[in-house]
Amino acid sequence: MTNREILLTRRRFSRKRILRGPYYRIEMATPAADPRDFLYKVLVIGELGTGKTSIIRRYVHKAYSEHYRATIGVDFALKVIQWDENTVVRLQLWDIAGQERFGNMTRVYFKEAVGAFIVFDVTRGATFEAVLKWKNDLDAKVHLADGSPIPCVLLANK
Ligand SMILES: Nc1nc2c(ncn2[C@@H]2O[C@H](COP(=O)(O)OP(=O)(O)OP(=O)(O)O)[C@@H](O)[C@H]2O)c(=O)[nH]1
Ligand SMILES: [Mg+2]
């Protein structure tokens, strides 16, 4: 090897170059300058058989079934929304069994939720009358950091 070849080889493998290389590639591979990821816990509550599980299955899995299987306790589903180029929103949907209004687990299930849907069945008046009971239970057991009630949407189903 001539002196010139040794010099070129040293330059090619210099510490500075090796360190600089990977950093450059990482920058190129990350288009989002400020990627943001938000996770929200959202409750879906309401009387037995009003369609809470069906709504969630449709929204998350794009599926529907006429077969009714009562939810026992609580089920979970995750809806991932690519909000914009830099923002991902994850909705952690808590599908709470209608029969839980008579149980004592709702305090645990409602904890740290930041939003809720209350579902009723337009063909069964009693499920609408129960909406207020669900709302009162919700407001008694969970609130936002500033003490205000969590945002809640009333859903008329069927
Ligand atoms: N016709 C009609 N039926 C529906 C609709 N949504 C749900 N159902 C039916 O209603 C029944 C109950 O639906 P679910 O989604 O299991 O109700 P749920 O609120 O999760 O019930 P629980 O888990 O017991 O609290 C099922 O047989 C569904 O197929 C709707 O929009 N229209
Ligand atoms: Mg259900």
Automatic annotation (TrEMBL):
It holds the Pfam family Ras. It is found in: Membrane. Its main location: membrane. Keywords: GTP-binding, Lipoprotein, Membrane, Nucleotide-binding, Prenylation. GO terms for cellular component: late endosome; lysosome; membrane; phagocytic vesicle; trans-Golgi network. PANTHER family: RAB FAMILY, RAS-RELATED PROTEIN RAB-32 ISOFORM X1. The small GTPases Rab are key regulators in vesicle trafficking. Belongs to the small GTPase superfamily. Rab family. This is Ras-related protein Rab. It comes from Galendromus occidentalis.
